[in-house]
Design goal:
It is a single chain. The chain has helices at about 5-15, 25-35, 35-50, 75-90, 115-130, 170-180, 200-210, 245-250, 285-295; strands at about 55-60, 65-75, 95-100, 105-110, 130-135, 140, 215-220, 230-235, 255-260, 275-280, 305-315. It has about 325 residues and is α+β, with helices and mostly antiparallel strands. The chain has 2 domains: about 5-65 and about 145-220, Arc Repressor Mutant, subunit A, CATH 1.10.10.2890; about 65-135 and about 230-315, Alpha-Beta Plaits (2-Layer Sandwich), CATH 3.30.70. The strands form 2 sheets. Strands 5-2-4-3-11-8-10-9-6 form a 9-stranded antiparallel beta sheet. Residues about 150-165 and about 325-328 have low confidence and may be disordered.
């Protein structure tokens, strides 16, 4: 699947979730791998430069802090690239993909609060002048727990709460989120003096958020394309509202599903309310996984669409704490 050496393979594979929340985490990782602390830091730095690693740090659970939404634009082909790059320049946009559909530009916007998010969404609608879908999270069944580079299966990681608990951040918590949302530093003591706070207090807060499920996972965040998962599809179904939770939970447990959640319909253009992301090494495998998923989860009889990704314009961590310049 990839050409990483054994140490890199273990770094990428074993520490997507089980990242040590200690004063010197890279020393602790090195002890597990049989290498020195500096080698761990250097290798993660090189993997980041190569693009295989997006960052080391938290993946915050959508709906717990700040506000976010999935959205899509139906963009004329001749405007697609320019509009995608315009979106990329906005710090509130963290994922931005072209997909095979009339609604061809799909992105995720995140902001500190709903009011800020609404300003961003309205700005995009007004300046793009394109038909737009806004599809916020309604119910989640499975959020990305990483990729297993050894056998191509998803990683399951540690068990944490999957409740949609809302957290109102105080000033120090907001400072921690702001410092970590772009990634943890590659330094001997990366938690030291984060936002001017005590190292032990920062580690304790991060550990608590991880146990509560506010942080879905903390560790090495890989870019799926660079580590061998070169194809992905967003699969959507039109499921009766009274059955969507039941079928969503069934779908979330199927092989190949990395994300699964309920989002609202937006009629008449968008009748779909159940969303799954399926990643694989090639399209044949992804299509096979989708067929298996539909059969085993009882979804074969419902209207559906498969939207393969064509191009990735942006992929980074969500910014839930702004710098004061996000409202334009």
């Amino acid at each position: 699947m990839n050409s990483f050496n054994p140490i890199e393979q273990r770094l990428l594979n074993e520490f997507q979730h089980d990242f040590p929340l200690v004063s010197q985490p890279y020393l602790a990782i090195g002890e597990q791998l049989g290498v020195g602390e500096n080698e761990v830091i250097d290798r993660l730095g090189e993997l980041s430069r190569q693009g295989a690693v997006s960052r080391v740090g938290p993946v915050f659970s959508p709906g717990c802090i700040g506000a976010s939404t999935l959205a899509a634009l139906a963009v004329p082909e001749e405007r697609l690239e320019a509009l995608a790059h315009w979106l990329n320049a906005m710090p509130e946009i963290n994922h931005n993909y072209q997909r095979e559909h009339r609604y061809n530009l799909w992105f995720v916007a995140a902001a500190p609060d709903e009011a800020w998010l609404d300003v961003i969404v309205q700005k995009i609608a007004a300046e793009s002048r394109c038909p737009m879908l806004v599809l916020p999270l309604v119910e989640r069944y499975h959020i990305d727990l990483g990729f297993d580079l050894r056998d191509g299966h998803r990683c399951h990681g540690r068990g944490v709460s999957d409740s949609l608990m809302r957290v109102r951040l105080d000033a120090s918590q907001r400072a921690i989120v702001g410092a970590l949302q772009g990634g943890l530093g590659l330094a001997r003591r990366p938690f030291d003096q984060i936002a001017g706070l005590n190292e032990e207090a920062v580690i304790r807060q991060v550990a608590q958020w991880r146990e509560q499920g506010v942080i879905k996972r903390f560790g090495v965040v890989v870019r799926h394309h660079e580590v061998g998962y070169r194809e992905n599809a967003m699969v959507v179904w039109d499921v009766p509202d009274e059955r969507v939770s039941e079928l969503g939970r069934l779908a979330s447990n199927q092989e190949g599903v990395t994300l699964c959640y309920r989002r609202p319909r937006q009629l008449p253009d968008w009748p779909y309310n159940l969303f799954c992301m399926v990643h694989g090494t090639d399209r044949v495998k992804v299509r096979f996984q989708i067929a298996q998923l539909a059969r085993h989860a009882g979804l074969e009889g419902y209207g559906s669409q498969v939207l393969f990704s064509c191009r990735r314009f942006k992929q980074c961590g969500a910014r839930y704490v702004g710098d004061g310049h996000g409202r334009h």
